[in-house]
Amino acid sequence: EESRAVDADVGSSLGDGAISAAALAKEVAKRRNFAIISHPDAGKTTLTEKLLLYGGAIHEAGAVKARRDARHATSDWMELEKQRGISITSTALVFESKGYQITLLDTPGHQDFGEDTYRTLAAADNAVMLVDAGKGLEPQTRKLFEVCRMRKLPIFTFINKMDRPALEPLELLDQIEREFGLSTYPVNWPIGSGDRFVGVYYRPRQQVHLFEKGKKHGSQEASVRVLPWGDPSLEDIIDRDLFQQLQEEIELLEELTPPLDMSKIYSGDLSPVYFGSAMNNFGVELFLESFLGYAVQPGSHKSDVGEVEPEYPHFTGFVFKLQANMDPKHRDKVAFVRVCSGQFTKGMKVQVARNGKTLTLTRPQKMFAQDRTTMETGYAGDVIGLNNPNAFCIGDTVYCGPRRTYPGIPSFSPELFSYMRNPNPSKYKQFLKGITELLGEGAVQVLYSVDTGRTDPILAAVGQLQFEVVQYRMQSEYGVETQLEPLSFSVARWVTGGWPALEKVGRIYNCATVKDQWGRPVLLFRNEWNVAQLLSEHASIGELAPYALPP
Ligand code: GDP
Fold it and tell me: Which residues line ligand 1 (CB under 6 A)?
């Protein structure tokens, strides 16, 4: 029982733990928290590693991958991860750099495993959108972008792989503005691309940063030569055509882009853009420095009793992710809590808003990739890993002081549906236990048929891989061999008006009526067109929502 990090200690009195606003403000001001969103293969792993390198958290790139590999060697349910060659779980990386304490919420990039990524964004204050310069915007990025939009996160764009054949910088900016409706402000500007990507012009300081290819394939920091714009030697160093082009483009930029408006960055309407090559370390350091300066520090969170500021004297936070079996030796699960206010201290007593239970958090963890170190204190913006997830559900509020509740994290609109059958009646109990626990963990959403009377659960997911993970875990953790029967629906809509709204409409065609885990009506459609048709024929059904918050 040594490994139990949190002991339930029901009924003890709550410690005060309140701390002055000034002391809190100092801690909060140092903190920057962000997540990277991207399409698989855009270079997220590479960029993460290079940020750690320049942040001083690691001394030689390759460490993150090595950890990932080490995990593969020791973990068993991660076997699935290995087979698929992808990263399913996400972790928070914490490091200190340039006077900031930085939390990088690492999200899985695989397109089949979106739901975790969406939840992780609920804990983030800033997002870095990574774009492959050769491919431009890709579909996976759009969904993630929309979540950032919904949450009004400041979005920073890093256009990667400039060392390869790339689209024109202006075309890339235009795509972002046109397709995402996001204004852009290029903070640096590339000089050349592909083999001729020699550096960037850094607008805030009107400097040219020239890169020299490192010898160790980018495993160490690249050397950079910095010259002020206007330095006469630039004309000799940079190829004539590139130099002329740069001159023209800088003029154009200064003419076309309005001055940087910080309030528009904070509201998520304007994205500072950086060009670089993560693999070669080009532009990574500039990006880190500039990004840290522009990124927002942890802000207030809406609760049932109004906004809670990070300087509010009591500790509050919410669970945004439950993760199973990171360490197979302990069969443990970790609940990740985003701290919203106050000071978190080791051993403090907190309450869970959902059921009023009191817990003592005796061994919280700070995450650095796979290494876990015990965390002594935490402040708004930090992520803490708690080792007693059975006490928590996704979206739970934990707090000290007077009760307050943060709204839960929405379940994202599932697009894939499948009955899960247990063909072996003697395994009924294990089957039920497995489904219930995996549902609580947020591994998958579960719906039940209403109009067919069939009692098998319908798994609802954002990606096919979620089904595979559930099936794999049902077998390896609960000993139940299950069968999937895919349904041909692709759209789910919650009937906001509830059952009465549905009854008013009467019989509906071209969709199935199901209920969610809280018994609320959900309609499943084959396509968006059928949704539009229903709305036009039966306006009285009222609002149909693509997802719903827990009640
Ligand atoms: P992820 O799937 O987004 O995590 O992408 P990875 O970081 O694993 O990178 C995908 C591939 O792109 C790998 O082969 C990287 O070596 C490569 N890559 C990443 N950054 C760059 C870059 O700046 N230039 C080039 N040429 N390749 C890169």
Answer: 38, 40-46, 109, 160-161, 163-164, 277-280
